[in-house]
Design goal:
The complex is a heterodimer of chains A (about 400) and B (about 375). Chain A is an alpha/beta fold and about 400 residues long. Chain A has 17 helices and five strands. Chain B contains 15 helices and five strands. The chains are: A alpha/beta (about 400), B alpha/beta (about 375).
Chain lengths: ~400, ~375
């Protein structure tokens, strides 16, 4: 054990002097996380539209739309309304992007509706703000359906039922239809808690887990380096058991990983406003991820012939897992098969653990993530140890 | 002849390095594929549905939502726990629960209650409108049915159908849609186009940065000194090494363009204009590689720093996240990177009918970057060679 520690400390001192280790393990993830935090508008579930309203009608039906559903949009903080005088003015505002969409209520709408005729409300949208136009259309269509409900009731009763279409009957039917209670109620259930990381947290976590797989190679790769330099043979002759040498190297990888992730997480919390939730479960998550990264790195070393080859394979494995595991693009927007595929990567498990913690979860919430990460580490590390022992003995 | 020989060696080294092949050829294609699969399809907000009622009115409500103006991607969930889980993890933006007995309640004349849930965001408040519009549509039919049943209508189903038919023919209030202005990207932009353009730029530059380490090794291993000792003039070596870096960038660029055209059907726009952009950006990469290769002395450090600088410049220049969604001031600053100019040029070519003339500013900016970097690179490399 003493020998393993000596080996580990010697390697760690070397790594500290080696700038490429610091660049890969600390500077790179931090700089990239900062850039993403700066570049990406923080869009955490927010939607807001600027709508222009042109009321050419001025009657009660138009007023009902403006005071009812449209005012509702404003109250829900979904939209800001601007009143505009003419359709061409509204169209210009949409075209130059001042507003996202415009609603044009035609002259004579109220008169047409009360006479049982038809009218057309126009929604002007732009391809630059598709969702805003869709929301505006939905609101107008919902209102149109409400307005038509009485007319539809009377029409259906006359067509299918046994009543006549004389003005007195129509008046009575309309009154009766108005008196009918709304058949469907829409209830908003208490808002669900978010178990989702903010974008600053997500990108810091994504970069931390991306680069931890590069940081992991700094320890175990040393086995191949010692072999190339001939120092491996001298250590074995000391005599130090192969297992002790491997343990020392593995310790270096683990320390590099934990330090790399801890620094990124801490700096992101202070400088980028990342929210990591409870610190102890997070520490456990970092250690579990470090174990899986070190295990995979050791497995690679077991199969590589030279340091260069091992470095290249590690990079390949790390990049492939990162792309599939959601380190570059959040997988929440992904099709389901990609989400399922991502569960094969440690990255996805670490990121889901971070999301759970950001949502206020504790050890219980991240237990599956911890379990999978440890299992990946133990299985790959175990296989790696078997292979690497052969590497050490073969010198 | 020796110029071409030196250049050929650079490309041979690229192709012989099997792990390098992964980063040069495979990784960009994989990322383009994943990006296209994720963002290329519909980017519609997602509605999670928990349908506990299999009656006609529940199906009819869902049809009304599907037929509505707000386009939502629907995902079905079997129980409340899994719907809640999806909402909390952000897999769906809005959840709708149609309770058991929905159809029976409405047919029986009572009030049915739908439950909408989601995270407390303004997006939920906006998307809720899709459900409300569909509810208003169905409510109108049910009101009509109920009124008619009170006045001689027979069966609920038949009357409801009659009301639906009447609703379709009703002169009532229609909603017309007009579209003005332009989107960020033209409407016919293929699913893989944006990703292909940005990854082309990102990876051509990254490869140039790694190619710079070859240059350092060539110097350190004494290959250049041995060439100088022979009858090869300095000019030839410089030209050969520069051409070699350029060749590496072009081989990769052409590979990515060809594969994305053949495999993903990406339309790169006007061939001449697109080619000029690729060539210009390859020259920028060549210049950067020459500068790094001449100035740096530790190939390992240059390698990791180079890749890192390439990723950072790529992110900053819009090769990871479209520059169009940057905050405005960052969009301006981003143009300090050649990446932003090249990607802007490619984006412009997405509009049908654009050609070389439309991207002259971008080509000129790239030319300035290339000329500056190449001048410094060749000058420093000559000094490094001749001491």
């Amino acid at each position: 054990m003493g020998a393993a520690l000596t080996i580990a400390l010697k390697d760690l001192r070397q790594r500290l002097r080696d700038r490429s280790a610091i660049i890969t393990a600390i500077a790179a993830p931090l700089v990239l996380a900062t850039m993403f935090a700066l570049l990406l508008p923080s869009n955490d579930g927010g939607f807001h539209a600027d709508l222009a309203v042109v009321d050419l009608d001025g009657g009660p039906v138009a007023q009902g739309l403006v005071d009812g559903p449209l005012a509702g949009l404003e109250a829900a903080d979904v939209a800001d309304l601007t009143t505009v005088g003419s359709e061409s003015e509204a169209s210009t505002l949409v075209e130059d992007g001042t507003v996202d969409a415009a609603i044009v209520i035609p002259a004579g709408l109220s008169a047409a509706v009360s006479a049982g005729g038809g009218a057309e409300i126009t929604v002007i949208g732009s391809p630059a703000a598709v969702l805003a136009a869709q929301v505006a259309r939905s609101v107008v269509e919902g209102y149109a359906n409400e307005v038509e409900a009485i007319q539809l009731s009377v029409t259906t009763a006359i067509q299918v039922g046994d009543v006549g279409s004389d003005p007195t009957t129509v008046g009575a039917l309309a009154a009766e239809a108005i008196a009918l209670p709304a058949p469907i109620a829409v209830l908003d259930e208490a808002a669900a808690a978010a178990r989702q990381a903010s974008s600053a947290t997500y990108y810091a976590a994504a970069m931390a887990v991306l680069f931890v797989f590069f940081a992991a190679q700094f320890g175990v790769l040393g086995i191949l380096g010692e072999r190339r330099n001939g120092t491996l043979g001298r250590m074995l002759a000391a005599p130090i058991a192969p297992a002790t040498i491997l343990l020392g190297k593995l310790l270096v990888s683990l320390v590099m990983c934990v330090v790399s992730m801890s620094v990124v997480v801490t700096v992101a919390a202070i400088a980028l406003g990342a929210d990591w939730g409870a610190p102890l479960p997070l520490a456990a998550l970092i250690v579990a991820t470090s174990i899986s990264a070190s295990g995979i790195a050791l497995l690679v070393v077991g199969f590589a012939r030279t340091e260069d080859q091992a470095g290249a394979i590690t990079s390949m494995v790390a990049m492939t897992l990162a792309v599939l595991g959601g380190s570059f693009f959040p997988l929440t927007a992904a099709p389901e098969f990609l989400t399922r595929l991502s569960l094969l990567t440690p990255h996805a498990w670490f990121l889901s653990g971070v999301a759970e913690l950001a949502g206020g979860g504790g050890f219980a919430a991240i237990a599956p993530a911890l379990g999978v990460l440890l299992a990946i580490g133990i299985v790959t590390g175990g296989l790696g140890l078997l292979r690497a022992r052969a590497v050490v003995l073969a010198r | 002849m020796s110029v071409l020989e030196i250049a050929r060696v650079a490309i041979v080294r690229l192709v012989r390095d099997r792990s390098g092949l992964f980063f040069v050829f495979m990784l960009p294609i994989v990322i383009i594929l994943v990006l296209g699969l994720m963002y290329g399809g519909s980017s519609a907000p997602r509605l999670g549905v928990l349908q506990s009622d299999d009656g006609v009115l529940a199906d009819d409500l869902l049809d009304a939502i599907r037929g509505g103006s707000l386009v939502l991607e629907e995902r079905a969930y079997a129980d409340a726990a899994s719907l809640d889980d999806a909402i909390e993890r952000g897999l769906v933006e809005i959840g709708l629960e149609i309770p058991a007995g929905y159809t029976a309640t409405l047919e029986g004349g009572a009030t049915a209650t739908l439950v909408v849930r989601g995270q407390a965001t303004s997006a939920l408040a906006a998307l809720r409108r899709a459900v409300e519009a569909a509810v208003a549509e169905q409510s109108a039919r049910i009101r009509a049915t109920r009124l008619t049943l009170d006045h001689g209508g027979s069966a609920f189903d038949a009357t409801y159908q009659a009301a639906a038919d009447a609703q379709r023919d009703l002169a009532g209030v229609a909603v017309a849609v007009e579209t003005v202005g332009e989107g960020i990207f033209p409407e016919n932009t293929g699913a893989f186009s944006i990703g292909a353009q940005s990854q082309l730029i990102l990876f051509m530059f990254l490869t140039s940065m790694t190619a710079a380490t070859q240059l350092i090794l060539t110097r350190q291993l004494g290959v250049s000194r041995r060439m100088l000792a022979g009858p090869t003039p300095v000019r030839t070596i410089l030209l050969g090494e520069t051409l070699g870096r350029f060749g590496v960038a072009m081989v990769q660029g052409l590979f990515i363009v060809t594969v994305t055209v053949v495999a993903f059907g990406v339309d790169w726009g006007d061939p001449l204009a697109a080619s000029l952009l690729v060539i210009m950006f390859a020259l920028v990469g060549t210049g950067a590689a020459m500068v790094v290769g001449a100035v740096a002395n530790n190939p390992d450090q240059a390698g990791s720093l180079g890749v890192f600088a390439g990723m950072a410049l790529g992110a900053f220049g819009g090769a990871m996240v479209p520059i169009e969604i940057f905050p405005p001031e960052m969009q301006t600053i981003a143009h300090l990177s050649p990446h932003a100019w090249a990607i802007e040029g490619f984006h412009a070519l997405l509009v049908p009918g654009t050609g070389v003339v439309d991207i002259l500013p971008q080509l000129a900016a790239l030319l300035v970057f290339a000329a500056g970097l190449l001048t410094v690179g060749v000058w420093r490399f000559r000094r490094a060679l001749t001491g």
